[in-house]
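Dig into my protein:

:::
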Amino acid sequence: DAATALDLAPLLPGSHPLITTAHAIALLEGIERATSADDLAELDRHARLLSLDEDALPYVLVLHARGVLAAAIGDHARALDLFMAAGDHAGSWGAASPAVVPWRTDAARSLRRLGRSEEAVVLVEEELRLARAYGAPRSVGIALRAAAALESPADAVLRFEEAVSVLESSPSRL
């Protein structure tokens, strides 16, 4: 079982980055499987108790997952703080590409929910620029979808059409 594996993993030398990544994935899976606000609250309590290697690059994935969880709960101020922390952490490792973690688009969603749409547009445009420069279709598609959410209906349709076109040759979907 996955929980047992995560409990035993620290006994293996050099496993800490893998454990950190596994916890991030487990959080995101927990969010997907949650069927109630109580499930999300329990997952949030668990996430706050995790003791992980905060100096390793994979910790950016945990910060991002915690932000996704906070947004799912409806705490967009905390989600924004976590997404921005993920961005700072990624930047400290020189990992600015949205292919590492799409923190800007998720931060933009929380900014929009907080009534700060102008800041959201700036983040999304930066993510789209970086995604295009990196060239990963999934990253470009995520950024285009986020841009569409911030635009007029007519412009949104154009962004969605471009996202579909970009993702046609990719296994990723909107």
In short: The two ends are 31 Å apart (CA to CA). The longest helix spans residues 16-33.
